[in-house]
């Protein structure tokens, strides 16, 4: 034991010494390089451009990129794709610019690169951290093989408002789950060695609070107390920093009246001084310029504000490039402000190994081998199946039998264009497996499939127009709506079971895709009404990038599978789940509201001074609604399996603890159903009396376990003082003595409880 400790200590000492040596080497390399750099060249490093002609992710593209690269006015590029183009651009920098400083090549690799995996919100519903790490790992392997070394991911914005289209890109509403996912993704992208040619630098975004846009309207103002910020919104960013993320992206919104991109408290005091972040900060797309519209001044003023705040790289807007020199001459910024930012960009390039070899990530051989490889397609299928959430399964209608006749209906049943979901900028939708193909692949010859489209995704022309901004995702059928429905009803009548593949178009979520009405489009509601009147069992498979208001639809359906947008292998993965090749295990990472009036809705709410009694009807002078319950339709953490699990009561190793002690909370979980399956066992804690009001529950642990039919397992969670801490009114992370409740269960609303005291 002692020997092990000595060896361990020696190892960590030598690792630390090695890291220090590397830092010294890097620092002196960069100092020497910077001595040779002109002011213009230094400012050039702070300039991130998108040349157009590649992937467009905003409304502006930069002109004259080639000339700018040659004259040292560009630090990095994004939006260009493929080894050939990236190689050409790198050659311009590495051979034709005066100091031959290589470029960074970034991209929005959000849920896969060319191989597209499920949207992040879906992945978060797997509660499977090793799977999520693998998603990021495979994305890095594929993207790095194609010339990229930097991704604008993970997006870790906590969101409590499903009207916001960007909930699709994040991990839902909970800071604890969100933090675990942030960590797993950074690890997956960056690996242990950023210099390796198959790892890429991650960029945590959008710092900060972007998910709290008022009214769920994208780019809107946010305003919240520091307490809410520290306790609920900041932890996932902090987790990414602690995991060593190389870069941070500023958000578009303001914080305490100052846009994040000019917010020195945020970018310097919190991020660097308190959290110790050592990488660089890039703005979001034209976020510097947008501060003119925020009302902070002209381009020169806002650019200087951003640099002074601690922002290092300016995305697309070229405010830094065009004004910083003037600001320096006018003493609005200092030489050292520019030097610090420039050094941080050069450090990133150094850490990625670009100074050793600017073409490190550019290899036609690797690209041929890794891009869209079979192993990634297979993984995509697994990831998608593991991300789906079974919301209802009456009469055990699922899994389906591989016999009889199935009416397969709905606008997303035979559709390639929408399977990838939002932010799949490098994914080719035409490579997707549509559901009809997946079902044919799995069902085999014993099943007759009657297909009918049944409805357009929507008939609302305004929505069609917005859904089709990036090409035709919503096609309007030449038959009229009633004809489409009649055809589907006819197929339903001739079948044993109806499988209806319904949902949103992929462009209904993502950036600039907020909706005030998050119901299923009317065309599809009419279809489901007609199908349910046939009396046949209806299995609804819902594709969406957000929780929708689906109370009536879940009542009409016999079974309901929330499939999100599953990426390239959607069709096979849905079939795997429907026919029981995979027993669903997903759990919601966002509460599903009953109606939009309940929003914002989240499980970790505060009790208030007039709480509604548990399961009580609406009462006068209580915090409730006249017309809807306080409870969501489906709570955070909810999800069914084809099997059932029972939970024993909680056993505590002790009913009191002192600050230095740990207690153990255990339950026995038994698979009481007819299938082997996985369960996510969830631990929540409630601090019953504290100096700052506490939410009714906070997730503090979870374990995803596999149990064979009939098998039981003890699941234990250690609870130390760390799990009992909260931010007090001085923003100190403290635990206060008193009584705590522990909850363990299958979702945030269905739990066993026990109590203990912190002395
Ligand atoms: C704007 C988006 O907000 C951000 O998430 C993305 O990374 C950039 N555009 C670059 O495409």
List the defining traits of the structure above:
759 residues; alpha/beta; Rossmann fold; 6-stranded mixed beta sheet; 5-stranded parallel beta sheet; 22 helices; 27 strands; globular; binds 1-deoxynojirimycin
Span of the ends, CA to CA? 33 Å
| Approximate strand percentage | 15-25%
Instruction: Tell me the Rg in angstroms.
Output: 27 Å
Question: How many DSSP helices?
Answer: 22
Strand neighbour order, sheet with most strands: 11-16-15-14-12-13
Average pLDDT value? 96
The set of bound ligands, ions and cofactors reads:
1-deoxynojirimycin
Helical proportion, percent range? 25-40%
**What does the overall shape look like?**
globular
> Can you tell me the CATH class of one domain?
Alpha Beta
CATH topology of one domain: Rossmann fold
The strand count comes to: 27
The fourth-level CATH homologous superfamily of one domain is: Glycoside hydrolase family 3 C-terminal domain
**Sheet/helix structural class:** alpha/beta
Major β-sheet annotation: 6 strands, mixed
* CATH architecture label name of one domain: 3-Layer(aba) Sandwich
Low-confidence stretches: none
Describe the protein in words.
- By secondary structure, the chain is an alpha/beta fold.
- Among the domains are: 1-33; 37-105 and 337-372, no CATH class; 379-598, Rossmann fold (3-Layer(aba) Sandwich), CATH 3.40.50.1700; 645-758, Immunoglobulins (Immunoglobulin-like).
- Helices cover 33% and strands 17% of the residues.
- It contains 22 helices and 27 strands.
- Helix 6 runs antiparallel to helix 16.
- The longest helix has 35 residues, at 2-36.
- 1-deoxynojirimycin is lined by residues 57-58, 108, 152, 205, 284-285, 511.
């Amino acid at each position: 034991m002692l020997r092990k400790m000595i060896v361990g200590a020696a190892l960590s000492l030598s690792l630390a010494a090695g890291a220090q040596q590397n830092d010294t080497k890097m620092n002196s390399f960069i100092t020497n390089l910077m001595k040779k750099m002109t002011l213009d060249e230094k400012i050039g490093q702070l300039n991130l451009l998108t040349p157009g002609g590649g992937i467009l992710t905003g409304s502006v593209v930069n002109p004259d990129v080639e000339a700018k690269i040659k004259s040292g006015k560009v630090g990095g590029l994004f939006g260009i794709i493929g080894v050939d183009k990236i190689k050409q651009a790198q050659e311009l920098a590495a051979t034709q610019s005066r100091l031959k400083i290589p470029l960074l090549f970034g991209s929005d690799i959000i849920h896969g690169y060319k191989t597209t995996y499920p949207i992040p919100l879906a992945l978060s519903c797997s509660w499977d951290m090793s799977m999520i790490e693998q998603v990021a790992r495979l994305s890095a392997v594929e993207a790095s093989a194609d010339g990229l070394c930097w991704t604008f991911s993970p997006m870790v914005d906590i969101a409590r408002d499903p009207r916001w289209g960007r909930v699709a890109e994040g991990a839902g509403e909970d800071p604890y789950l969100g933090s675990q996912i942030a960590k797993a993704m950074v690890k997956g992208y960056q690996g242990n060695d950023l210099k390796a040619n198959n790892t890429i630098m991650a960029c945590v975004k959008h710092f900060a609070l972007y998910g709290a846009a008022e009214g769920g309207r994208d780019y809107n103002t946010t305003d919240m107390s520091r307490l809410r910020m520290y306790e609920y919104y900041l932890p996932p960013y902090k987790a990414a920093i602690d995991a060593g993320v190389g870069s941070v992206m500023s958000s578009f919104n303001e914080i305490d009246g100052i846009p994040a991109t000019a917010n020195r408290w945020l970018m310097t005091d919190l991020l660097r001084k308190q959290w110790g972040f050592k990488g660089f900060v890039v703005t979001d797309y034209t976020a510097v310029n947008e501060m003119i519209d925020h009302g902070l001044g002209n381009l020169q003023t806002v650019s200087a504000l951003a640099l002074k705040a601690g922002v290092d790289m300016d995305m697309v807007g070229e405010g830094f490039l065009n004004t910083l020199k003037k600001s320096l001459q006018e003493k609005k910024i200092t030489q050292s402000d520019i030097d610090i930012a420039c050094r941080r960009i050069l450090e990133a390039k150094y850490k990625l190994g670009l100074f050793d070899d600017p073409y490190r990530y550019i290899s036609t051989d690797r690209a041929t081998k890794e891009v869209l490889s079979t192993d990634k397609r297979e993984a995509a299928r697994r990831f998608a199946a593991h991300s789906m959430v079974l919301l209802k399964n009456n009469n055990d209608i699922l899994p389906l039998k591989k016999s009889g006749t199935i009416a397969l209906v709905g606008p997303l049943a035979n559709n390639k264009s929408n399977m990838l979901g939002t932010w799949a900028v490098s994914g080719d939708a035409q490579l997707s497996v549509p559901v009809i193909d997946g079902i044919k692949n799995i069902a085999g010859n014993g099943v007759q499939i009657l297909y009918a489209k049944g409805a357009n995704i929507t008939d609302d022309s305004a929505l069609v127009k917005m859904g089709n901004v990036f090409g035709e995702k919503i096609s309007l059928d030449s038959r009229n709506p009633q004809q489409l429905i009649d055809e589907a009803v006819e197929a339903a009548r001739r079948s044993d079971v109806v499988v209806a593949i319904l949902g949103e178009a992929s462009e209904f979520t993502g950036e600039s895709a907020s909706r005030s009405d998050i119901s299923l489009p009317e065309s599809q509601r009419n279809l489901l009404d007609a199908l349910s009147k046939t009396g046949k069992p209806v299995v609804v498979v819902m594709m969406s990038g957000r929780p929708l208001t689906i109370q009536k639809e879940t009542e009409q359906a016999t079974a309901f599978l929330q499939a999100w947008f599953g990426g390239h292998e959607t069709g096979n993965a849905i079939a795997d789940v429907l026919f029981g090749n995979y027993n669903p295990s997903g759990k919601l990472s966002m509460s599903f509201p009953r109606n939009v009036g309940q929003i914002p809705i989240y499980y970790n709410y505060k009790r208030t001074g007039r709480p509604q009694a548990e399961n009580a009807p609406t009462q006068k002078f209580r915090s409730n609604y006249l017309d809807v319950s306080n409870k969501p339709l489906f709570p955070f953490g909810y999800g069914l399996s084809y099997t059932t699990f029972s939970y024993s009561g909680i056993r505590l190793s002790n009913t009191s603890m002192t600050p230095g002690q740990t207690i153990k909370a255990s339950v026995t979980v038994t698979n009481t159903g007819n299938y082997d399956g996985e369960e996510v066992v969830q631990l929540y804690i409630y601090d019953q009396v504290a100096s700052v009001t506490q939410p009714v529950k906070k997730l503090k642990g979870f374990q995803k376990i596999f149990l064979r039919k009939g098998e039981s397992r003890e699941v234990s969670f250690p609870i130390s003082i760390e799990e009992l801490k909260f931010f007090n009114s001085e923003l100190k992370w403290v635990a206060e003595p008193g009584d705590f409740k522990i909850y363990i269960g299958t979702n945030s609303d269905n739990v066993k409880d026990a109590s203990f005291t912190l002395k």
